[in-house]
Specification:
By secondary structure, the chain is α+β, with helices and mostly antiparallel strands. It folds into two domains: 16-76, no CATH class; 95-290, no CATH class. 58% of the residues lie in helices and 8% in strands. It has helices spanning 16-26, 31-41, 60-88, 95-106, 112-132, 136-150, 168-174, 179-192, 230-238, 244-250, 256-273, 277-290, and strands at residues 154-155, 176-177, 197-200, 207-212, 215-220, 226-228. It has a four-stranded antiparallel sheet.
Length: 292
């Protein structure tokens, strides 16, 4: 098997004439014929490597069926890669790597390097103002100006339970998300600037925290980077009738593993409520591994 999950070079490649015949039959209107051809195109459960080029075939029917076959396998491979990641790491890992792997389970062809380049550019845009800031409020203001001002990120209050709010590629495409994913964007940009921004996983909400020798700043990324005082955060926690000791713990940074687990748990609830059993089962596999 090749690194991209296709068949190996040792397997025979059909002649050009044979390939054309198979593709022509793939567009047949008879479902039984199409099913038979699909089995030939993926004889060991994986699409043959030569098919990849035909994802851009001129015939829309052939193009759609080749893409369906290839994309289904790509999702299986992405799912396996993410499961291995979850099983192979403890509490601390590269959260950005994890969210990109999660994104690929939904969209295997997501151009991850292009999205990472966008994060690089936003960090570069904020860098001059960050470097000239005299306190934490100035640092936060510089990041806010780029992410919530220039780039227009904001909380998707209109479609809060849209699954796209939890996949980083879609969050960046649409500049919309939920508290946890918008905080991830904030953290990823801050990390490129060497800023100690962490996630604070409160019940029912998620904040970022920037801290330096002068103090701390709690940032509500869902509401345009609004600064939240610790007193305000405690008042929010008071609605959950938690003891003061528990409130203090809940205002501490969340580990990457728990952050990822919470992100997937949000998705799992959404798909359960939509009665999407396939997606629910897929996400539950991740949660089982992350809960260990």
């Amino acid at each position: 098997m090749s690194p991209d999950g296709s068949t190996t070079d040792s397997e025979p490649v059909p002649s050009a004439t044979r390939q054309q015949a198979l593709l022509t039959l793939l567009a047949d209107e008879d479902g039984a014929v199409v099913e038979s051809i699909l089995k030939q195109l993926a004889p060991k459960g994986r699409p043959q490597a030569w098919l990849k080029a035909h994802r851009l075939h001129g015939d829309p029917v052939i193009r759609a069926r080749v893409r369906e076959l290839w994309d289904a396998q790509a999702r299986i491979d992405a799912d396996r890669e993410f499961l291995e990641f979850c099983a192979g790491h403890g509490e601390h890992f590269d959260l950005e790597e994890a969210v990109w792997l999660l994104a690929k389970t939904r969209n295997p062809e997501a151009p991850i390097e292009a999205y990472q380049a966008q994060l690089d550019w936003w960090a570069q845009a904020a860098a001059p103002t960050v470097e000239s800031a005299t306190d934490g409020a100035g640092v936060v203001s510089a990041l806010n100006a780029v992410l919530f001002g220039e780039q227009g990120f904001r909380g998707n209050s209109e479609q809060y339970f849209d699954p796209d709010n939890s996949y980083m590629d879609r969050v960046i495409d649409r500049r919309r998300g939920i508290p946890i994913t918008l905080c991830c964007v904030y953290q990823f940009v801050a990390r490129r600037l060497g800023l100690p921004v962490v996630g604070i996983g409160m019940p029912g909400h998620f904040l970022c925290r920037y801290q330096d020798a002068q103090g701390e700043w709690l940032i509500d990324a869902f509401h345009g980077g609004r600064l939240v005082t610790r007193s305000e955060a405690r008042q929010r926690l008071a609605h959950f009738a938690l003891p003061d000791s528990d409130s203090a713990i809940l205002l501490q940074p969340i580990t990457p593993r728990r952050c990822l687990q919470r992100m997937i748990a949000n998705l799992h609830v959404i798909h359960q409520e939509r009665r999407d059993s396939g997606e629910s089962r897929r996400l539950q596999q991740y949660l089982i591994l992350l809960s260990r």
